[in-house]
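Hey, I'm writing a tutorial for new members on how sequence and structure tokens pair up, and I'd like a real worked example in the thread rather than a made-up one. If someone can provide the structure for the chain below, I'll link this post from the tutorial.
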Amino acid sequence: MCGILGGIGKFDRHVFEKSLHRLSHRGPDGYGLWEDPDSNVMFGHRRLSILDLSDFGKQPMTDGELTIIFNGEIYNYKELKKVLEANGHHFRSNCDTEVILKAYKEWGHRCLERFNGMWAFAIWDSKQKTLFMARDRFGVKPLFYAYTRQGFIFGSEMKALAPLLDEVAMSKDFAWCQRNIYEYENSSKSLLKHICRFPAGHYAYLKPDNTTIKLQRYWDTLQHIGTVKESYKEQVERFRELFFDSCKIRMRSDVKIGTALSGGLDSSSVAAAMHYLGTNGFVDHEQTDWQNAFVATFTGTELDEKEYAEMVVKSLGLKGHFYEIDATKGIDTLSNYLWYFEELFLTSPIPMVEIYKAIKANGVSVSLDGHGADELLAGYGTTIFNAVKDAPFNIPGINEIATTYKQLRGTDRSNFKVVVDGFAGRKNMLKFYLSKFLKFNEENDYLVKELGYFNAALYKEFHFYILPTLLRNYDRYSMTAGVEVRMPFMDYRLVTYCFSLPWQSKLRNGFTKAILRDAIQPVLSVKVVRRKLKTGFGTPFTDWFLGPWKEFINDTINSGAFRNSSVIDATDVKRKADQFYTEPNPTFEAGHALWSELMPFFWETAFYKKLER
């Protein structure tokens, strides 16, 4: 896990080095610079040492005519190394970077299909005078690029590209991104003019004289959907097998590993799998210090899950580290953290960065976390009613779906009324059922045709909306602290298996994520397995705004910088802030709504205005 920066063109070396060092938080363990002066190619790398801590693992790494800079991890590098050695390749290092180089030599761009991991990398072929770039299947690792008068540049973060741009200016898409907070990550749009996002699941070849980059897609989850066993018991066994192996290969590390634990089902399942693998001798790497669990606490707020986290720590015999998130300290760190975060979002980065900083302070550089399970298995509950459309005349199934939703949301209504609400009214429900009875209005959504209504809705959350944004956010949160986050639920084998499952395997006996609960129950406390309340990891804004942040917010909305901001309507936002403070008992949601109004201004002052310095 690192930071990368590259360019093809006539870039000033001093400016390039300055740009590279803006990624020092991503790679605090060293840096390297490489040039091919004949082709005006320059590669820079900031290293976070995880595998092969020796100099043999340093980057940029050259092997014959190929030179690579790589950010990420290839978890199945051991298996690939054996195949490549059998094919006659010889290795100097014990790291996955060299495996990528040999795999590219052996298979070209088809090597991407063999990798199990997360990556953004570039390979320069000095013989063919060609740049090859690629990003992992689901976009876990970031990659930006831009064309300038001096040439083509690319890198891990926008802030590193900024000094190499012809001008630093706000993108014409800024307002759109602000309105579509969960959608812009999956687009080519960025918040800065001229910078584009390299899409997930794509690669590209580039010659020095090319004026446009030609993107090629190599991964489409839909093309890998398969058939599953009809028996739910066999489905559970297969899910457990895939999940445990996903955790196993993600425990490969030459440094201490741990987990960011919330006490919810997803992170607790990862911790339980690590415990099972570690205590039963299934970890195939020398690293044995894996029992570290780190918990962020918010005493007295709706976001506090300490009780459940303590239960998991105790039942699994983990080393529990509990950290109270200090709201007062957050005022001082906000600007710095937003500089590293560099994007817009609905919550602050403070709690998340703080827990990863605590992880790093304890000598842990790798954290296995539970991201992705909600979008695979309907954890949010927002997609539940789509299952009714998949079983429109299955009355027991419809009651199951309605009951699950009511228990998840704490709704006290009849099943019929809940289903009506799920269709957004009787009229829409009647229209849907008439179309089924009369067999007209054929569905034109290609995802629904392939997956059904329920899995199609999850597919969109996973690939297009919520998850890409969360993956981006957690990359920034963790790398601000120099910590690598690995996500077992993002293993492509598990992803394709989950999208092959019917809705009945995910919504069952009144629970969402049914197959995960049943797969992990043998190794995790039943109180956690059967816990239905979902608590998101975020910032308790209402508590903070009414307490330690009150003076800070008032000073902000009355400042000259706020009044002169170019990214907000200062008068309107101030009115909304004043209204928040005049409410007798502002809700939890009211605090988040106010943050969403203030966030663009904080981004402007903490990130945008610092780029030109």
